[in-house]
């Protein structure tokens, strides 16, 4: 007996008319197990490759063929190809015919624009979050600010960078505007890349930690415009520092 018929027969009161649904309809509504497996593998390939790019383990300019990536990930080429298309749509890689993929660099002009947009979006997130009634639990912001302070005091740049990234993602997630959060997260991917690439040629992030503490205190006190101002100043300072690093080291892209 077909699986759909068995399921119908096991439900009290079901009729054979209901059980005898055309197979084509069932296939349209319910994806096959092979399709579900492929989607799952695509998601896994996407998450792994994206994390390697954002953490600079696959640095700008890195190139690889699809078969090489598939072998490294232990899966077929199809989910890897679909994951690369998603990463290309997010501006992280370029998919090259017969040449696999290349991790895209980030130019100074790109970063200036990204930081300008982030300062607006995150500033609005600060206003929305500080004004929400009742205010959501901001424990995540407190935790990541504390983690940044501890990492900076210990000279642990990588832990600081990860806490910094989590702080900004938590900020936009808590503001209550899902579209703002979604768009911000795409830009935060690029911002985190530049932090990781320049992590050991920039100053210890003491000022950045102070900036985040100010923003946190403003939000906790409900001072929405002060939070927006401090966030914007933080982003402007960050963009300026990045451009100074590029100029000092004569780097044309990251």
Task: Please explain how this structure is put together.
The chain starts with a helix and ends in a 6-residue tail after the last helix. The protein contains twelve helices and three strands, in the order ααααβααββαααααα. It is mainly alpha-helical. 71% of the residues lie in helices and 4% in strands. The protein is globular and about 55 Å long. It has three domains: 30 residues, no CATH class; 62 residues, Arc Repressor Mutant, subunit A; 141 residues, Four Helix Bundle (Hemerythrin (Met), subunit A) (Up-down Bundle), CATH 1.20.120. The longest helix has 25 residues.
Helices and strands in order, then pairings?
Elements: H1 3-9, H2 16-19, H3 23-29, H4 33-54, E1 63-64, H5 66-73, H6 77-89, E2 93-96, E3 100-103, H7 108-131, H8 139-154, H9 157-174, H10 178-197, H11 206-221, H12 224-248
Antiparallel strand pairs: 1-3, 2-3
CATH architecture term of the largest domain: Up-down Bundle
User: Strand share of the residues?
Assistant: under 5%
CATH topology of the largest domain: Four Helix Bundle (Hemerythrin (Met), subunit A)
Largest sheet entry: 3 strands, antiparallel
Number of extended strands: 3
Keywords:
single chain, 254 residues, mainly alpha, Arc Repressor Mutant, subunit A, Four Helix Bundle (Hemerythrin (Met), subunit A), 3 domains, 3-stranded antiparallel sheet, 12 helices, 3 strands, globular, disordered N terminus
């Amino acid at each position: 007996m077909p699986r759909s018929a068995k399921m119908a027969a096991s439900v009290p009161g079901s009729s054979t008319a209901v059980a005898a649904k055309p197979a084509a309809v069932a296939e349209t509504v319910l994806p096959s197990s092979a399709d579900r497996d492929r989607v799952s593998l695509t998601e896994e390939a996407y998450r792994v490759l994206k994390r390697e790019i954002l953490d600079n383990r696959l640095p700008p300019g890195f190139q690889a063929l699809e078969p090489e990536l598939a072998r490294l990930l232990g899966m077929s080429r199809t989910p890897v190809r679909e994951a690369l298309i998603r990463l290309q749509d997010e501006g992280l890689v370029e998919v090259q015919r017969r040449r696999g993929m290349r991790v895209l660099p980030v130019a100074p002009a790109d970063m200036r624009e990204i930081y300008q947009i982030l300062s607006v979006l995150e500033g609005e997130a600060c206003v929305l979050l500080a004004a929400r009634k009742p205010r959501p639990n901001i424990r995540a912001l407190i935790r990541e600010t504390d983690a940044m302070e501890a990492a900076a005091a210990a000279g642990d740049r990588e832990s600081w960078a990860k806490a910094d990234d989590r702080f900004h993602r938590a900020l936009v997630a808590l503001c209550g505007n899902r579209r703002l959060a979604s768009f911000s997260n795409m830009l935060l991917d690029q911002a985190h890349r530049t932090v990781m690439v320049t992590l050991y040629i920039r100053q210890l992030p003491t000022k950045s930690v102070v900036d985040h503490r100010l923003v946190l205190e403003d939000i906790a006190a409900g001072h929405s415009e002060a939070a927006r101002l401090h966030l914007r100043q933080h982003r402007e300072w960050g963009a300026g520092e990045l451009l100074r690093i590029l100029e000092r080291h004569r780097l044309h892209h990251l």
